[in-house]
Amino acid sequence: MMPGPARDERDVISPMRWYGGSIAIVSGVYAVIMSMIMPEMTQAGWFMLVLGLIVLVHGILLVTPLVLRWGDISGPLMLLYAALMLLQQAWLAIRQPEMEGMNGMMETGTMTWDPGMVALALLMLISGLIMTAHRDGMKAQPTPEQ
């Protein structure tokens, strides 16, 4: 088998970055969709839309070599995003405890707390903790020579 072109170590994305990036992309897309399908755009909806877009971009960057320029900030950023999402969901749950998810959103016409968003935010929190604790896992992983 002929060896292929030499790969730059920065081109190889670590499994931890794939994991964190995937969670951020799914969370960001979910937040954007949930904020945009509301009948009435409220401050909570705008907050979730902006945060979802930021999380989505961060997730995309995590699976590219561009994130290597950020150093060790990706894990703490994921923790911040997760904390903001969880705080918003807690605020929405306290404000309208009897309403939840799509049913509550359709009844009230405004954003209500969403168990799906809470679950994704918890995954982001765990991912951020892992990324922060194991910063060396965020670096490119050399591939074995064949």
Q: Layout of helices and strands, plus pairs?
A:
Elements: H1 15-36, H2 43-62, H3 74-95, H4 101-108, H5 115-133
Helix pairs in contact: 1-2, 1-5, 2-3, 3-5
Number of domains: 1
Biggest beta sheet attributes: none
The proportion of residues forming helix, as a percent range, comes to 55-70%
Q: Give the overall average pLDDT.
A: 80
Number of beta-strand segments: 0
The fraction of residues in strands falls at: under 5%
Instruction: Report, as a whole number of angstroms, the end-to-end distance.
Output: 8 Å
From the helix content, strand content and strand pairing, which structural class follows?
mainly alpha
> Uncertain spans, ≥5 residues at pLDDT below 50?
none
For this structure, the quaternary state is: single chain
Form type: elongated
Helix and strand element order: HHHHH
Q: Roughly how many Å is the radius of gyration? A: 18 Å
Counted by DSSP, the helix tally is 5
